[in-house]
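User: Quick one: structure for sequence A, then sequence B.

Assistant: Sequence A:
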Amino acid sequence: MAAGTRAVLALLVLCSMAAGAAGTTGFIKSPLSQKRLTQDSVELYCEAIGNPIPEIQWWFEGNDPNETYAQLWDGARQDRVKINATYNLHSTSTISIANLTGDDSGMYECRASNDPDRNHLSKSPKVKWIRSQANVFVIERPEITAQVTESSGKLILSCNMSAPYPTITGHKWIHKEKVVDQDENAGAFTSYTIDGKREEHSGVYECVFEANPQIRGQVNISVAPQVTAYKKSEHGNEGDTGVLVCKNPSFPAVTTWSWSKHGHGALENASGRYIIKSSGNKTELRILKLDIEQDTGDYFCNGTNSYGTGNDKVNLRVRSRLAALWPFLGIVAEVLVLVTIIFIYEKRRKPDEVPDDDDGGSAPLKSNATNHKDKNVRQRNAN
């Protein structure tokens, strides 16, 4: 890729040198004619080479027969015209016009010249300006009537375009930059059906009419804020900072966020311990130096827009800093109890297992007497 880029640049330099040797300027790219709707924007691009590097100017001639070419500059037409130019190896220039009106229709001309006297007021340039032209056609934007209706658990979105309008070759429906439905029907009416309720499918939908130029309409499904807590239950340690978060996934965005606590009322940034940060569809409550007695409880986040209000609840539990030690202390206590039980058990069973001294002394005597008796019996039998 890098080698290809270098080859192209080398070719441009060679072309520029050749053009300079001949004392001429040439176009690499010329502006292209375009069709646009009122309120749209248009962009034209021009690129030229020469040695020295040529200057590029933009000129305009309207559709009025008595109108002559007039030069355009950056900021013209109430700052709707923007011109960007670069001069590096060759010349490039882009003109863009925003919020088009019918008066912007006409011939746009890109002029390039590298003659030193090209802008002199009294001298005529030796080398004439070279020119490349493009037509811009601005047509009136057709009116589109957008509507949302509900029927049998379904939402029906529709767009109807009023005449006059260009030839239509198909339709598209777009939501969140994704095409959700399309067809190739020719007609000024299109519709899109969604299964579900407004609250489940709120947002901005675009109906697109495939024509030249392409025509777009917008259908909004708007509801009151569907506020949801990021977590229904949060935990924090005493002395730390607690963070509670709520969001609103629905359309339109929340305009006003607020927080309150059960039994306490509204929470304000000015209190010193509470910091509330809100932006669009998200709000965050930070509680500094959590306290078990003061901060444990239920918190409510409230969001409001032009269609109503929504809220949700977050339960905050504040733990002591020693809470992490309780499992370890419990294990230690269990071990101590177990060791104590074993010690008491061993202590009680040892006296029962010690042999009696009297019994131990009489047993051998009895055994000896028996042995003597048996010996005497054997002696009599021998006699």
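Sequence B:
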Amino acid sequence: MAASVLRSACGPLRLGVACLCRRRPPRSLWARAWRLPGLVGSARSVAAASGAGTLGSDRYCMELLRKRDYEGYLCSLLLPAGSRSSAFALRAFNVELAQVKDSVSEKTIGLMRMEFWKKTVDDIYRDNPPQQPVALELWKAVKRHNLTKRWLMKIIDEREKNLDDKAYRNIQELENYAENTQSALLYLTLEILGVKDLHADHAASHIGKAQGIVTCLRATPYHGSRRRVFLPMDICMLHGVSQEDFLRKNQDKNVRDVIYDIASQAHLHLKHARSFHKSVPVKAFPAFLQTVALEDYLKKIQRVDFDIFHPSLQQKNSLLPLSLYIQSWRNRY
């Protein structure tokens, strides 16, 4: 069915705006949200933090995250104080792996970097980490929280397989990639928070898949500028859309139908994750704050009628820090 018809009905992507009027946070809370470290602009950058000796390895990880994964940076700031530095280390590790693909000109070089991180993880669990800031902080996190090595290696292995510039054959392949990267990251975050719960793991699995799908959508204009398209081929074929349509920034109804179907799958995963809300320990909720940013993007893409190239989708939401803070205060995800 065409997206134009589905959008007029109560389809899976009919997203409601969360009502902020049920419980009004105290005025002081609104003010405190803007005083969180890093929620205002900073002149420092990763370039300034290129030497661990300048800022220290912990600060290096924070600056790397602030520059390369701002939403993850904000979510990490709202974790309990005892878990924050470990979360920064974990997400900085993920950033290091994620940027390999775009920073190398040859696959062989990318494989060498992945091999470095495999050896680094092995050395971390032998208490012999290399003198690299992210590796040092990750070692501290592993020692502090006894993190599962298997999840770290899964992230590396999946990122390594993704070095090939190939589109996902189907939505399930994209979800598998997200499970082994984004969901694995959440499983480790739950370990940092001291949460061992089956319902929390189920929620993490769905949120990670939603994150992977949304990330793929958000990156489509950037990939298109480099003449690459990674959207699931099965959905493109279903609507008679070719990769060339995305490279030419075609805005026909069929192209929007593709985006609608993919975005609907992300929304469905969020819905499934929230169905465990009453069973998930409250202690786990801070790990799932990224749902705020995911839902914000899905609402924005709905407002522009699933035009993946609309300029508004590339703009940063200046109210996101406040939205995250309120969600954290309400103990929701």
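The longest helix spans residues 171-192. DSSP finds 18 helices and no strands in the chain.

User: Thanks, that's what I needed.
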